[in-house]
Design brief:
Elements (H helix, E strand, L loop, with lengths): L17 H16 L4 H7 L5 H12 L6 H14 L1 H4 L9 H12 L3 H20 L34 H9 L5 H13 L3 H5 L6 E2 L4 E4 L10 E4 L2 H10 L24 H8 L10 H13 L8
Antiparallel strand pairs: 1-2, 2-3
Length: about 300
């Protein structure tokens, strides 16, 4: 092929008889004479579809992602925007125009989503490159010229003025949510913690003697241990949380699934149910806390 000698296995004897080997050899010579590369045809049978390759990449990355939600969102973005177009294509058949069909329609209107989809397609094709399935990454720089630069819009989480937080907590306290969920939300607000850090908190992290919550490095976004001072109000929350004990070590266990933490949507649902969701998010209470600390204390910005 192309002036070079190519060799291809026909199978071993006795599984492949001499007659069968001769027949296969004749087919390969006929294919080569017709301009096809029988070796490439054979290899192509092992080339995964984009969906199959994406599943391999997903499985390879699950262990390093901190939350199963990351994996769910990663897969959902491809399922919604990439799989309908390239999911069933062999990865070596994907062209630049195929990738552009996935991201171009939303590039100007849903830019951040389009960027994420492109980045994830690029990651999958990079894996395919590493395994020899494709030579070029069709989601890489080769399509930059077709996608005009779009400004990044920084979105801020909705947050309440800190003067309105106490009233909001009073409304939450009167809601029909489970005690565990209401106490967890109060704990998040009073400690300015991330939702996931609070929902996964365990009793062995609470040092009542030192009035500290010691969050281990593997549970923080920055991957470094963090100590949170516990005020009298927080200690009261923890004292009340003891009534929610389900036999596990979780401070705020799920009332529906004993031994499991509250789901990532539980606290958001409380805000929706009490009519606060259009004014605040769970994460937004961190901004309320930061504003209060800057305006009402001498704590430097770097400490927040």
């Amino acid at each position: 092929m192309d002036g070079r000698r190519r060799e291809i296995g026909l199978g071993g004897w006795p599984e492949v008889s001499l007659a069968d080997a001769r027949a296969k050899a004749f087919e390969h010579r006929a294919a080569a004479a017709g301009g096809r590369d029988p070796l490439a045809d054979k290899r192509r049978g092992d080339v995964p579809t984009f969906r199959e390759a994406a599943k391999k990449v997903l499985d390879a990355n699950r262990t390093r992602w901190r939350s199963e939600r990351t994996a769910v969102l990663w897969w959902a973005s491809l399922e919604n925007h990439a799989f309908p177009i390239i999911g069933d294509l062999a990865v070596d058949r994907i062209s630049q125009s195929d990738v552009l069909r996935c991201v171009e329609p939303m590039w100007a209107t849903r830019t951040e989503t389009a960027r994420k989809v492109r980045q994830r397609i690029r990651t999958v094709l990079r894996w395919c490159q590493a395994h020899g399935y494709v030579q070029f990454n069709m989601a890489g720089e080769v399509i930059d010229g077709a996608l005009p630069p779009m400004p990044r819009v920084k979105s801020h989480f909705r947050s309440l003025p800190y003067t309105a937080v106490a009233d909001a907590l009073a409304v939450v306290e009167g809601s029909g949510a489970s005690p565990s969920a209401k106490l967890c939300l109060r704990f998040v607000v009073l400690t300015a913690a991330r939702s996931g850090e609070a929902r996964d908190a365990t009793w062995d992290e609470i040092d009542f003697a030192a009035c500290e919550w010691k969050i281990p490095a593997e549970r923080t976004k920055a991957a470094s241990g963090h100590r949170v001072p516990l005020s009298a109000a927080v200690l009261d929350v923890l004292d009340r949380a003891k009534d929610c004990h389900d036999g596990s070590d979780l401070v705020f266990p799920s009332p529906l699934k004993p031994g499991r933490p509250l789901s990532d949507m539980t606290l958001t649902k409380i805000l929706r149910d009490v009519g606060l969701a259009d004014r605040a998010t769970v994460h937004g209470f961190r901004a309320s806390f930061r504003t209060w600390a800057l305006e009402q204390t001498d704590t430097p910005w770097a400490g927040l």
